[in-house]
Structure formats: C-alpha cells, structure tokens
Queue: 2 jobs
Job 1
Amino acid sequence: MNDSYRHKGLRRKLAAEVRSKGIKDERILDAIEKIPRHFFLDSSFVEFAYQDKPFPIGSGQTISQPYTVAFQTELLEIEKGDKVLEIGTGSGYQACILLELGGRVYSIERHYALYVKTKKLLGQMKYSPKLYYGDGYKGLPAFAPFDKILVTAAAPSIPEALIQQLKPGGMMVIPVGKANTQVMKKIYKTGPDSYEEKDCGHFRFVPMLGDKAK
Ligand code: SAH
C-alpha cells in the first residue's frame, strides 16, 4: 500500500471540493485529507479514488461519495468518545472517518465477503472499529445503547430496533425511501419512547437488504 505525495495532493483537492459543496466541519475535511481513500478501491481503479463520486467495491456494493460521507457525518455531530453504530460497513471508509473524529465505532455488514475483506484492510491500516457480520436491521442489542447511529444504505422505513438502541438525547442519520431516491432523515431521540425527525435533502444509496448474505 503506497501513499505518495501525489495521492496527498489529490486528497487536498478532494477536501477542498467537499468544502466548496457546503461541508463546514474542519475535522471532517481534515479526515478526508488524511485517509488514503485509494486503499479502499481495487488497485486497478486507483485513479477514481479522489473524484467526488461513489464507486463499486464488489459484492454489488459501493463506497459512498465523499460528499455524502461528509454530509452524513456532519449531521451526526460526532463528539470525541461517542459510541457510534454504523449500519453497512462496506469498504470501511466511513468507519475510518468516524474513528478520526474520536468515535468508538461499531459497524455491521451483511455481506460476508465484504466483512472479511474490510476487516483485513482496516487491520493493515491500523484502524480498529468493532466489525460485525450480521443484519443491520437488528442492530447490536448486546452493545446498546449508542450515542449515534449512522445508516449507510437506503432503508424502506426507520427500523424500530435501531430507535430502541439509541440513547435518549442521541441521534440517528438514515436515508429513508425506495430505490431511486431517499430522504436523508436526522432523528433525535427525545425520550425513552419518543423521537423527532427532520428531513435533510435527497440522496441515492444502495438498498438496505434483510438478513445476512454469503
Ligand atoms: N459505509 C460504506 C458504504 C457502504 S454501501 C462505506 O463507507 O464504504 C452500503 C453497505 O450496506 C453495503 O456494503 C451493503 O452490503 C450493506 N448493507 C445493506 N443492507 C444491510 C443490512 N441489513 N445490514 C448490514 N449491512 C447492510
């Protein structure tokens, strides 16, 4: 894994592009500048790594567009030490951003092959979120409650189990809707059994699918 000055230069440009699209949190822009996104793509596609675009990562899945990663992260208002649950580990790039912001990160992936590949890569990169192979619809009840929950696949509706696993005062960011376009929702858990939601624009994610896959 080679991270050259050229890659660093491309990352600086990418961070500037994401800033120009409206992201203000400097910690997130710094994380984009720091994390070698080209490590998360197969080596034959390295030249695509620093475009502000999503990209296929195998098993029919994609690494999200950097702007979208930044947008979701900004909505979550991560504070150092927050216990964060991510649904849809995918390439692991988003999990690394959350770690750079000081989150204690738990992440679930339903594709076994992706889970294995990402666990190995992040280990090599010395990032150590807690990774699980499982169904994100169920969350991780054994480790609940979480300060923040981030869903990185399109959910048909807000999963009840995830709301339950959020701390009162906690927040969840989740794209909700059908295949073509989803509404980004920010959920505030206002009490043990109550929450409020806010719509934050339209996005397009791969669908959140039920149960595990080999
Ligand atoms: N956060 C990822 C983006 C992944 S795309 C990144 O930074 O690269 C969405 C991911 O969600 C895919 O890897 C997909 O396999 C996964 N996914 C879809 N449904 C899921 C479910 N029910 N539980 C866990 N992961 C799921």
Job 2
Amino acid sequence: MAKIEMKTPLVEMDGDEMTRVIWKMIKDTLILPYVDLKTEYYDLGLENREKTKDQVTIDSAEATKKYGVAVKCATITPNADRVKEYNLTQMWKSPNGTIRAILDGTVFRTPIVVKGITPYIPTWKKPITIARHAYGDVYKNTEMVVAEGSKAELVVTDKDGNETRQLIHEFKGTDGIIQGLHNLDKSIASFARACFNFALDKKQDIWFASKDTISKKYDHRFKDIFNEIFDNEYKDKFAEAGITYFYTLIDDAVARVIRSDGGYIWACKNYDGDVMSDMVATAFGSLAMMTSVLVSPDGIYEYEAAHGTVQRHYYKYLKGETTSTNSVATLFAWSGALRKRGQLDELPELVDYADKLEQATIATIEDGVMTGDLAALSTLENKTKVDTETFLLEINKRLAQLMQ
Ligand code: NAP
Ligand code: MG
C-alpha cells in the first residue's frame, strides 16, 4: 500500500517521561506505516530545554506560527524537585505558557466520548468543549490585607497625569481584604475571535457567559466586545454554517449545561474556565480522555493531550514493569493535527486517515479492549485490561482493516 503523502510539515514537539515513550510508539505503530510523515521536529524534553536554555520552546512556537499546525507531547513543568532530578540551571517556565504567550492563543478542551464510559450527567451524549480565556482577572491580580480604619480607593492616572478616584471601601470596625483585577480589550477580542473561529471550524454552537448584571463595567465589557465582533465579523458566517452564538448569564449557563445533551462550545472567563473545565473533565469520566487544542486568533492550531507526563507510570516503565497507560488523548492530538494539516493542504486522504485512526481507537475501547484507567470505569460487560503497547497494536488491527 502506498503511503499517504503530505505537503507542508507538521511542527512536532516531543516531550517527557511516559508520554514521550507513548509518542514514539504511536508514530511507529499507527502513523509511519500509513503516512509519509513530514514533520519539523523540536525536542521539548526537559534535557533539551536545559541544553538550549529553553530556546527550543521559543523556536517551536515560532515554527508553529510559520506552518500553522503543531502537535505537542506533554512536558514537565519544572518545580524544585525537578531542578534536582534533572540538574537544571534554572526553573524553566512552563512550555505551554511560553507557547501560549507567543501564539496569543485560547485553549479548547474536549472530552472523547465512548460507549461504556458514562458521564456523571446521564443526559450528556455529546462532548462539551470548554474555551478558557487565559489572560488576566484574578490570575494577574494585586491584593492586600487592609487594616481597620483604612480607606481603599481605585486610582487611575491617565497618560497626562490626571487622576480618577473611586472609593472601594472604608474599613470601619474590622480589618479586611481588597483585590485589583484588570483585563485588556485586545486580549478579550483575541479570545472572542479564537472562539468564533473554533465554532466555525467545529460547526458547533458557542455560548459565552459572565456576570454582567453584577459587574456592569468589567464583565459587561467582555459581553460587549463579544457582541461587537460577532455582529461585525461572524454573523453571516455563522448563519451560513447553521450555528448560533448566544450570550447568557453565567448562572443560566451552568443550569443549561447540566440540562443539555452536549455538542457545543462553552466560552468562559479565566476563573470560570479554570473551575468549569475541571468539573466537565471529571463529569465526563477521565483526564486521559481529554484533548486540548490551542487556537490563535489568526487560525494557528496546536494540538495536545490535556494530561501530564504520567510520571508514576514512567518510573514503573523504567524499572521494566508492565504499564497500562492510556494513549488516547495523545493519539487524538496527532489525528487532530494531521486532519487540520490535511484540510489546509487539501489532502482528502490525510483527512480520511485521521478520521479512521480515531474510529479505530474508539472501536477498540467499545470492543472492550482498554487500558487500566478505563477498565476501572467502563460499564461494558466483557472488557480486557491491556498494557500500553498491546492497546496500540489492537487499534492497529482495526485501523489496518479500515484502511484497506
Ligand atoms: P499527570 O501526568 O496528568 O498524571 C496524574 C495521574 O493521572 C497519573 O499518575 C495517572 O494516575 C493519571 N493519568 C493521567 N494521564 C493518564 C494516562 N494517559 N493514562 C493513565 N493514567 C493517566 O499529572 P501529574 O502527575 O500531576 O504531572 C506529571 C508531570 O506532567 C508534571 O511534571 C507536570 O508538570 C506535567 N504536566 C504537563 C502538562 C502538559 O504538558 N500539558 C499538563 C499537566 C502536567 P495513576 O498514577 O493513579 O494511574
Ligand atoms: Mg483548574
């Protein structure tokens, strides 16, 4: 069988620990036999980040800007333990943070839904994607403990030196606390565009919710920017695609989400997205079944798994013990990236291969063959727990048939 040709290379960002092991297995077992894979390879493994003084992370993000599509393996974000373990000269920053800052992107997280893994909300039949605004609010705040008898004010000094003051609170009879938050029109607009582009790409409805009834300037600004960009740039495209955008109060959104059957994108402010993405991930069943894609406002895509490097499994693997690590989210990062590359380069065969790779993966699990994390959750009657490698070989059995 002739291998599927590619035109433009994918940016390939390799990573750490167990996911690095899985990365190679996926390529060898499921991709290289079918695709004449073209990638521009960047080794974001911690050792190489140390060796290049983290320049490799920046280079990989720049390459993503150039080519438009990347696939990333999970990477270690160093902490004090890792500095010792890897003999680091610096506590290098999170690669995901660096890449996100360079691409100015929004992260979309979507669960992979399979028969046998029932969401805790039984009405949820289709995945719910959470889009989290990843700038500002409480994540870039200034806060103070305030002593009784103090007066706290907001003071803004404009570029000509004029001050505008507003009272926050006069602290009488008790100590208290204050917090200063900000956001940027530019960042909110980027977030809105990334959300609307992603909705068009997925042909799914998108909701945005905040607390504009209480926060009449701050949250209301988010609502206005979303509405303005939608009306001016996306209204017609949405009508053509048969999808809708609507704004609602965050309380209403939460109630609707629980009553829904899924199949839409929920755009959240930074804090709401932080909290709600954990709720949605847990309710859908497993972190190992959660995909993640970073989308820039100008349509650059970086695909990855939402989970980390699965360190505990890696130490078992190093000792030569059998592991049963779930490769589904990493596999879907590859299929997502290859599909997007195929769409951009007009390669229907590559798009078709990506679809079949996902079908084969889901079929394997629905046939009852799965890794330990899923076996513990699945309600299927006949299920077999398999090791990391066997799972991929089982997927390949089904993929080979689909590709015939
Ligand atoms: P983790 O790698 O997501 O793993 C936490 C636990 O979740 C695992 O020990 C495992 O539970 C289970 N798990 C996660 N993914 C799994 C999979 N694919 N298959 C089976 N089980 C899975 O999180 P962590 O242990 O907190 O972090 C490890 C490293 O990953 C850290 O250095 C962190 O910086 C990094 N990290 C990277 C990213 C990223 O690159 N996007 C994201 C998060 C964390 P059991 O051990 O109980 O089986
Ligand atoms: Mg969180």
